[in-house]
Design goal:
Blueprint (H helix, E strand, L loop, with lengths): L8 E5 L2 E4 L18 E8 L4 E13 L2 E12 L19 E4 L4 H8 L3 E9 L7 E9 L6 E3 L2 E7 L6 H8 L2 E7 L6 E11 L3 H6 L8 E9 L2 E5 L19 E6 L4 E8 L9 E3 L1
Protein name: Pyridoxamine 5'-phosphate oxidase family protein
Length: about 280
């Protein structure tokens, strides 16, 4: 994950993308950014909830960043993106930790997250030279990702209907996830095998869960194989879910290429320590 001042990513022509930033040398993604390698990127502007995906190959890499040969690019609608306003924070980057499993801090990072990013890839006809890589955003109310031991359960929301991520996971069931603590600037990176679940009791339990938003009729599980935590870096701080107008009611405007509508969500009665939600 990289960030910078507006303009650090720019396109000199429709088939070229220049990124004036690189992940840290200890980031697992860094070793894969070599000339000719497949690359998937997601550009997201949190204040406006605008996001675009781009796929292609690394044309050049230097000390300042990389140049990408664009093969495909398209925009996604802003639903499930939480609005945040960047605030520059200057501090020393903390060293990364490599974990053998989920510790308490990692569990908290996942269960309190309202955003994470997922990377997937497919080798066409099993040929790494014909690899395609994709990066996507997932969002929901804190708690929408469930942790059971070393397994993460993630509901599939109704989205753009492109199925880039799910299609890749169906063919190649492996994924890399990044959870961001927007208050501290910490990152939690997870990689491991995945499983798509299209039916069963667990799926029925997820449907209708308010902290999951609008669940589709599938879910996917990520079994953690590798964990890495990058502590308190210079990532900008940003806000969290914000209340709408009046009485703790949240108003969420959702839109996509097919529809645009508004839902109003209000707290329903529940036991202490948990805030279930109902649609009103």
């Amino acid at each position: 994950m990289v960030e910078g001042a507006p303009g650090f990513v720019h396109s000199p022509d429709p088939r070229t993308l220049r990124i004036d930033a690189l992940p840290g040398a200890d980031d697992p993604a860094s070793a894969g950014i070599t000339v000719g390698a497949a690359l998937g990127c997601l550009g997201i502007e949190l204040p406006t909830r605008r996001r675009n995906r781009v796929n292609g190959r690394v044309r050049a890499r230097d000390a300042e960043g990389l140049t990408m040969a664009v093969e495909a690019s398209f925009g996604n609608c802003p639903q499930y993106i939480q609005t945040r306003t960047p605030v520059e924070v200057v501090r020393e980057a903390a060293p990364a930790e490599r974990l053998t499993g989920l510790d308490e801090a990692a569990r908290v990072a996942i269960t309190t997250a309202d955003t994470f990013f997922v990377a997937s890839y497919v080798d066409e006809d099993g040929d790494p030279a014909r690899r395609g890589v994709d990066v996507s955003h997932r969002g929901g109310r804190p708690g929408f990702v469930r942790v059971d031991g070393e397994v993460l359960t993630i509901p599939d929301f109704a989205g753009n209907l492109f199925f880039n991520t799910l299609g890749n996971l169906l063919v190649n069931p492996r994924a890399g996830l990044v959870f961001v603590d927007f208050e501290r600037g910490d990152l939690l990176q997870v990689s491991g095998p995945t499983e798509l679940v299209l039916a069963g009791e667990e799926l029925a339990q997820l449907e209708g869960r308010s902290d999951c938003g609008e669940c589709g009729r599938s879910r996917w599980c990520a079994g953690a194989g590798r964990w890495r935590r990058a502590g308190a870096s210079s990532n900008s701080r940003r806000g969290r879910w914000r209340p709408g107008r009046g009485g703790g009611v949240l108003s969420i405007h959702r839109e996509c290429r097919y529809c645009a509508f508004e839902e109003r969500l209000a707290p329903a009665r529940g036991h202490a320590g948990r805030r279930p939600w109902r649609q009103v």
